[in-house]
Amino acid sequence: MSEQKVALVTGASRGIGRAIAEKLAADGFTVVGTATSESGAEAISAYLQAAGNAGCGMALDVASDDSVDVVLKSIAEQFGAPLVLVNNAGITRDNILMRMKADEWSDVINTNLNALYRVSKACLRGMTKARWGRIVNITSVVGSMGNIGQSNYAATKAGAEGFSRALARELGSRSVTVNSVAPGFIDTDMTRELSDAQRDLMLGQIPLGRLGQPEEIAALVAFLCSDVAGYITGETLHINGGMYMA
Amino acid sequence: MSSIEERVKKIVAEQLGVKEEEVQTEASFVEDLGADSLDTVELVMALEEEFETEIPDEEAEKITTVKLAIDYINDNLA
């Protein structure tokens, strides 16, 4: 790549987000990764620096309009407008609906879904002007299959996929693609919290008989962000070891 | 230095990919010059850059013709 494009990855301090940030850095993007805390941002800066990348970590609360406003301005000043955006930051507040508190519902909607409005909108000006852009929204197999205790989370993930399709239509004429990547059961902190029994139950439903690795998700996201993927838009790509076949 | 009218018309022609002589003062971006909704947003972005100003969304939505763009710039930058 002759001139380095800026890639913004939210939720990049660990797990899938970190793997995506590292892969995009290896592919030649200047990467800005975000985390909710300053210590998370520092950890991102450290691994990007170790990889020789010009980018850095920044503290960002995707649930806050002001935070998104400030951080996006700062990225534009320091590095230029991001032409690649990976909306990866997300939370879970699991509970069956009959017991779910209003804040468990609204926190998840605000962080996982409303953030797409905030962060994506803030990046569109740069992408439409460049006549090139890539937005990848990290969703979940749960958005298609549903899962007990995750009505809030599943709603945001299915919502993100609809959002991607609508935005793909709006921006197609400017060569900006918008896609979703829906991981299944991936080996991260989130899944390490499960009990052995829960884990065995999940593995029994996966034809490939193992968890996915964050690097396997990152490889797919990086492909979607590359020039050769320019004809794929509005699509949801499932990557789940065969656990769900659309 | 060309007039505000000339500068606005030049930007409209560039953004919408039409000839400058087609950009009549009374022309509507959408009806006469074939702009879609995204074109009109980008047109406002280009005007903001040319005239080094920020046009609030609620004002930007009202700028639907060449004349309204010229008037807006004259009223807010003169």
TrEMBL record, chain A:
Keywords: Fatty acid biosynthesis, Fatty acid metabolism, Lipid biosynthesis, Lipid metabolism, NADP, Oxidoreductase. It is an enzyme of class 1 (oxidoreductase). InterPro entries: 3oxo_ACP_reduc, KR_dom, NAD(P)-bd_dom_sf, Sc_DH/Rdtase_CS, SDR, SDR_fam. The keyword Lipid biosynthesis applies. Its EC number is 1.1.1.100. The active site is at residue 153. Pathway: Lipid metabolism; fatty acid biosynthesis. It holds the Pfam family adh_short_C2. It catalyses: a (3R)-hydroxyacyl-[ACP] + NADP(+) = a 3-oxoacyl-[ACP] + NADPH + H(+). SMART domains: PKS_KR. Residues 5-217 form the Ketoreductase domain. NADP(+) binds at residues 11-14, 36, 88, 153-157, 186. It comes from the Bacteria. GO terms for molecular function: 3-oxoacyl-[acyl-carrier-protein] reductase (NADPH) activity; NAD binding. One of its GO terms (biological process) is fatty acid elongation. Belongs to the short-chain dehydrogenases/reductases (SDR) family. Catalyzes the NADPH-dependent reduction of beta-ketoacyl-ACP substrates to beta-hydroxyacyl-ACP products, the first reductive step in the elongation cycle of fatty acid biosynthesis. Homotetramer. This is 3-oxoacyl-[acyl-carrier-protein] reductase. It comes from Parahaliea aestuarii. The gene is fabG.
From TrEMBL, chain B:
Keywords: Cytoplasm, Fatty acid biosynthesis, Fatty acid metabolism, Lipid biosynthesis, Lipid metabolism, Phosphopantetheine, Phosphoprotein. One of its GO terms (biological process) is lipid A biosynthetic process. One of its GO terms (cellular component) is cytosol. The keyword Magnesium does not apply. Pathway: Glycolipid biosynthesis; KDO(2)-lipid A biosynthesis; Lipid metabolism; fatty acid biosynthesis. Carrier of the growing fatty acid chain in fatty acid biosynthesis. Belongs to the acyl carrier protein (ACP) family. This is Acyl carrier protein. It comes from Parahaliea aestuarii. The gene is acpP.
